[in-house]
Amino acid sequence: MDFVEVARFASRLEAETVGHALDPYDIPFMVKSEDIGYFGPGAEGPTLIGASLCVPEDRVSEVSRLLSCIVKPPPEEPPPA
């Protein structure tokens, strides 16, 4: 199962909170961030890099619809020069 990013947040806590909103729909999610763990900087609030909410590739359109009222899609990466 391939996971893709559907949103970015300032902290792991925000990403996990929104991710758990998908629980009633049985949509798995994964949060990627560079924090140090629960008692590190990610537990206290925003980090410099933030956190990405990722979902299975085949559920992206459903998740985008479900979360459209609370998150915007991540910015697209510029094409390589």
Task: Explain what the structure shows.
This protein is α+β, with helices and mostly antiparallel strands and about 80 residues long. The chain has one domain (about 5-65): Alpha-Beta Plaits. It is about 25% helix and about 20% strand. The chain contains three helices and three strands. It has helices spanning about 10-20, 40-45, 60-65, and strands at about 5-10, 30-35, 50-55. The protein has a three-stranded antiparallel beta sheet, with helices on one face. It is globular and about 35 Å long. The N and C termini lie far apart (about 30 Å). About 20% of the residues are buried. The model has no long low-confidence stretch (mean pLDDT about 80).
| Mean pLDDT value | 82
- Calculate Rg over CA atoms: 13 Å
**Total number of helices:** 3
Largest sheet: 3 strands, antiparallel
What are the secondary-structure elements, in order, as H or E?
EHEHEH
The fraction of residues in strands falls at 15-25%
The amount of helix comes to: 25-40%
What is the total tally of β strands?
A: 3
CATH structural architecture: 2-Layer Sandwich
Strand sequence of the main sheet, in spatial order? 1-3-2
Number of domains: 1
Low-confidence stretches: none
CATH class: Alpha Beta
Structural class: alpha+beta
> Might you state the CATH topology name?
Alpha-Beta Plaits
Span between N and C termini?
31 Å
Shape: globular
Topology:
Blueprint: E1 3-9, H1 12-20, E2 30-33, H2 41-44, E3 51-56, H3 60-67
Antiparallel strand pairs: 1-3, 2-3
